[in-house]
Write a structure and sequence with these properties.
The protein is of the alpha+beta class. It has 2 domains: 148 residues, Jelly Rolls (Sandwich), CATH 2.60.120.10; 161 residues, Alpha-Beta Plaits. It has 12 helices and 13 strands. It has a 5-stranded mixed sheet with strand order 10-11-9-12-13, sandwiched between helices. It has a 4-stranded antiparallel sheet with strand order 1-8-3-6. α8 crosses α9. The longest helix is centred in the middle third of the chain and has 28 residues. The radius of gyration is 26 Å and the shape is elongated. It starts with 5 loop residues before the first helix and ends in a 7-residue tail after the last strand.
Amino acid sequence: MADKLLPLKSELLKKTDMFSSLLDHELEVIADHSEFRTYRKGDSVFKIDEPGDALYIVRSGEVLISKQEPYGPVIDIARFIDGNCFGEIDMFTESDRGVSAHATGNTELLIFPKSGTSFADILNNHPEISARILHKLLAGISSRIRSANALVKENSPIIQELKKQVYRDKLTGIYNDTYLLERVRKNISIGLSFALIISKPDNFKELNDEYGHEAGDIVIKLMARKLRDYTGDDKRTVRYKGNAMAVMLPDVDRDEAYNAAKGVQNFLKGLDISEVTKGKKFKLSASVGIALFPDHYTDPEELVFKTHELPLIGRNRGGNCILFPEDGAE
């Protein structure tokens, strides 16, 4: 039985760079081994670690590509809209998916090859198509590499601005959690010992309740700016999440890390926030978590995640605590 959608499939395939060089009869072969599939909002297209055995072309709607960071947030990587093709590299290299994909709304995709069909078998049966597609794929990858190299060489100010957008916290201007995790990963990869200190005010909710969330944002900016001045090193001071502030100290022992954490705690307790409270007495109380590499953790994500949990444990114990991981055990 003839596939009534074959012309529509061929037209969509022809518009993608990978299949644009195929002759009409070759496009029909690819179209005949493709299928349309519809998705509703939130439906999974594929999940991380699934076999990369197909590529996808968006006929309508949108697909979001994302990745779950271990012990961290889900990071949005890319969005694909009408006419975009994705998943082809995994299919050609027979690799498992390194990311997840889901529909952000009602979406229709053209999938090649269709269920029950092997990409390798198709190419073995049609070697001339294989050669054309492979040539297009390699040309596309080479073009992307050349473009990226040109961007780095010719537009270094743009690269610097991109780094600022990626690594700087928009509210406070200091470094953010993305920067922190990369620094932790790098230090662990080269075997550089360090301490990570993460502090959180115990009574920040009371501040927000009494003076409002705008006042809370002002205090966060004060904390960030003053803590950076206190540490004397922009690259050591990070806004991790919400009102949590992090400080990294290279090559320190347990006692030195504790003394530094005590200093951070005292700094927060003594922070002048009278501009927010309009003269009313309100002093921050703070709990602080400390983890050492390699003493406590050797996995970057786990080290950051577990250290961030310690001030929360301290707050639940009444606040004003300084805790190492072994102190946080119930």
